[in-house]
């Protein structure tokens, strides 16, 4: 069994994976001020909740887009499992053929998503990850990562809207009864839900037009479940995509 961790700007996704599959997935807040010991205690508490015994973990792997947290978390995990932890980045084999201007700029989360999607779905592929930012990755029919786009995340856009306007308040991300909102709250809900769904539909149409062929579309991330059901395109939702990719990369680097 391995401990797989993905560090995002807002949340850290933690999961344990064995030969049978993913044992659990949990999220905790990304906190730049937490110490190595504080992260170790939090992780230990999570594993105790799921009855993961000391010594059950053979190793760990971390992907991170928050450099300030990466090393602190690596030390925290090694404190628990008493073995070196792999960090997704230079030096690790991934099997992904990256054809962007500077492959080193590809975020580890996007790399891991792409590795997992390639292992499970036919190409060409469009991979959407909906977190602090909504990212779209494109893999062509030759199984090459050719690029993508970045859009403000749903919550990021909502927080910005509320903080820069005097009369708008925070809302829950649930669809209104009608697309055309008849009050301020429903208007905001419609804009957030249907607006972001339309963004995905529109980007997918343009990507397929540029590629000249239909794509398999896979979405993941904390907000995919709120937005994807309102898209007009058929999009597969896989909440476990990142952890699956981390497991694949871990196995490639045993």
UniProtKB/TrEMBL annotation:
It comes from the Bacteria. InterPro entries: ATPase_NBD, Type_III_PanK. One of its GO terms (cellular component) is cytoplasm. K(+) binds at residue 129. ATP binds at residues 6-13, 132. Its cofactor is NH4(+); K(+). Its EC number is 2.7.1.33. It is an enzyme of class 2 (transferase). It is found in: Cytoplasm. Substrate binds at residues 107-110, 184. CDD domains: ASKHA_NBD_PanK-III. The keyword Transferase applies. Pathway: Cofactor biosynthesis; coenzyme A biosynthesis; CoA from (R)-pantothenate: step 1/5. A monovalent cation. Ammonium or potassium. The keyword Nucleotide-binding applies. Homodimer. This is Type III pantothenate kinase.
């Amino acid at each position: 069994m391995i401990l797989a961790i993905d560090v995002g700007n807002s949340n850290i996704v933690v999961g344990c994976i064995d030969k049978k599959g993913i044992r659990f997935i949990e999220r905790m807040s990304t906190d730049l001020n937490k110490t190595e010991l504080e992260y170790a205690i939090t992780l230990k508490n999570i594993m105790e909740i799921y009855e993961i015994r000391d010594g059950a973990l053979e190793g760990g792997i971390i992907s991170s887009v928050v450099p300030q947290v990466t090393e602190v978390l690596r030390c925290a995990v090694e404190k628990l499992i008493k073995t070196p932890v792999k960090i997704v980045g230079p030096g690790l084999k991934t099997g992904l053929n990256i054809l962007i201007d500077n492959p080193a700029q590809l975020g580890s989360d996007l790399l891991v998503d792409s590795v997992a999607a390639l292992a499970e779905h036919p190409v060409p592929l469009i991979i959407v990850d909906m977190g602090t930012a909504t990212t779209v990755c494109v893999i062509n029919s030759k199984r090459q990562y050719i690029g993508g786009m970045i859009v403000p995340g749903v919550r990021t856009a909502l927080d910005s809207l509320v903080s820069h306007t005097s009369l708008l308040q925070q809302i829950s991300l649930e669809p209104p009864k009608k697309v055309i909102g008849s009050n301020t709250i429903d208007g905001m809900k419609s804009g957030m839900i249907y607006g972001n769904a339309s963004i995905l539909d529109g980007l997918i149409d343009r990507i397929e037009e540029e590629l000249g062929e239909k794509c398999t579309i896979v979405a993941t991330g904390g907000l995919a479940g709120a937005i994807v059901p309102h898209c007009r395109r058929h999009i597969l939702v896989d909440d476990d995509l990142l952890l699956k990719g981390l497991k694949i990369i871990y196995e490639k680097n045993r």
